[in-house]
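Here is one chain, start to finish.
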Amino acid sequence: MRESGGPGLRRRPPGRPRREPGPVARTVARLVVRAADGATRLVTDLLGASPTAGRERISEAELRDLVAANTLLDPDERRIIDEVLVAGASLVREVMMPRTEVVFLSARLTIAEAERLVRAETHTRYPVVDGTHDDVVGFVHLRDVLLRPDRDPCTTVGELTREVKQLPGSKRVLAALTEMRREGHHLAVVVDEYGGTAGIVTCEDLIEELVGEIHDEYDNPPDPAHA
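Its structure:
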């Protein structure tokens, strides 16, 4: 079950691999993401200041104030943190995989039928629908389909479906990542303002938006073929 087409979304050019951030960018960005996720002690260690007592999270504005007030961060570290915060303000709908590119599995498929489909794909998680693409009832992991030798081949995909999170496309990337990590979700269905399925997003997509395009002086130069 796949649709094709779908303009208007910011996507990685076809054939272009994910670019890994360098060690400094990776470390600082990870700290910022964890700080936004409620790691008060980590913020204190990084910036030498404590957020308001009794609060588990700090806002983006408070984090920016802490960064501005800190005298130990060098210009590159400030730039990296600023880029993470700017990227975090992007909307989920700007970084999601649009529904036209998503592989959906019908809840009525048997495991044997689903296995034939997923072997031709490269994904690890598949949204499960009971009807149209707007009727997402959960998702299955690749191992649910392929790594259960004792499973009755007539078992349906619907019987193996796991709960899937829903996110509005208007939610900001950093807030979405924080929420997904806190709740233990790796995949979310992105819904539009009418409640229909707009696409899907993974934690990896959100993290890449935050740190995947940030580079520092220790990075390897990009491959000219993908520049």
